[in-house]
Automatic annotation (TrEMBL):
Hydrolase as UniProt keyword: yes
Limits of the Endonuclease/exonuclease/phosphatase domain: 50-260
Record bears the keyword Hydrolase: yes
Species of origin: Pseudomonas brassicacearum (strain NFM421)
A GO MF label: endonuclease activity
Keyword entries, A-Z: Endonuclease, Hydrolase, Nuclease
Protein name, per record: Putative endonuclease
């Protein structure tokens, strides 16, 4: 008679068992304002160091704000300026999927939001939420397919305006976009909300969004300035998802790599 171990080894897993093995039920999210690859006050170009720090978190999905697509003059000024867009440089070999939403275009180049993902990006689009005559702002909406037969996950990377009136209008546009999604669709909205007056959550709660730090700690995280965070500018909101272990990355090396402290959280489907 075969031993139990040998008997089990002779059976191929069913299709359902194979899908269960492949299914992802938890993954880690990171959001960081890259400050275009410069330290606070633009004193030093540190994108290579930032890439190593981002890699160390081993996040599955990375939300980036203030990332350069192109810049005509910086390659001549900085010897370590990458030969590719900053989001591709940051993605490297760890995040095979990435999307970029160009928000600001000027004679020398452009910058915007980006998403890096270990999961397939099925589609993406950049929602223009700029207020006419003022700052160029956008929301990068990506749809992710995780391994297995689970639901598609909507990931929206945002960078809101500096004026409260502009942010209110931009949050209304975000809620409008959310209203177009299936009510049970998993959603993550993360980025730099510039919400120093703490009004965003009140406006987003009717849209079904919950802020992960407020849910755990009672308030959003302090994230700005990175070396001594006082203002609660950056957020991670979720809908139809569970959030675990939210963290503020405000110690070295992070405190010297941007003017914003990155935020991370573990997401459960």
């Amino acid at each position: 008679m075969n031993s139990p171990e040998t008997s089990e080894a002779t059976h191929e897993p069913t299709q359902q068992q194979a899908q269960d093995l492949d299914r992802v039920s938890r993954f880690t999210v990171l959001t960081v304002n890259t400050h275009k690859g410069f330290t606070a006050l633009n004193r030093r170009f540190i994108l290579p160091e930032l890439r190593e720090a981002v890699r160390s978190v081993s996040a599955d999905v990375v939300f980036l704000q203030e990332v350069h697509g192109t810049h005509e003059h910086h390659p001549q000024r900085y010897s370590n300026w990458p030969s590719m867009p900053q989001y591709e440089f940051l993605a490297d070999s760890l995040w095979p999927q990435f999307a970029y939403g160009r928000n600001a275009v000027y004679p020398a180049g452009d910058h915007g939001n980006a998403l890096l993902s270990k999961f397939q990006i099925i589609r993406h689009d950049n929602l223009d939420v700029s207020i006419s005559g003022h700052e160029n702002r956008g929301m990068l909406h990506s749809v992710l397919r995780l391994p297995g037969d689970g639901p598609q996950v909507h990931a929206i990377c945002v960078h809101l305006g500096l004026r409260e009136g502009h942010r209110v209008e931009q949050l209304k546009l975000l809620c409008q976009r959310l209203s177009e999604l299936p009510p049970d669709a998993p959603v993550i909205v993360a980025g730099d909300f510039n919400d120093w007056r703490g009004k965003a959550s009140e406006l987003l709660e009717p849209c079904g969004l919950r802020e992960v730090f407020a849910e755990q700690w009672g308030k959003p995280a302090r994230s700005f300035p990175a070396r001594l965070p006082i203002l609660r500018l950056d957020r991670i909101y979720v809908r139809n998802l569970k959030a675990h272990h939210p963290k503020v990355l405000n110690v070295r090396p992070w405190s010297h790599l941007s003017d914003h402290a990155p935020l991370s959280v573990e997401i459960e489907l």
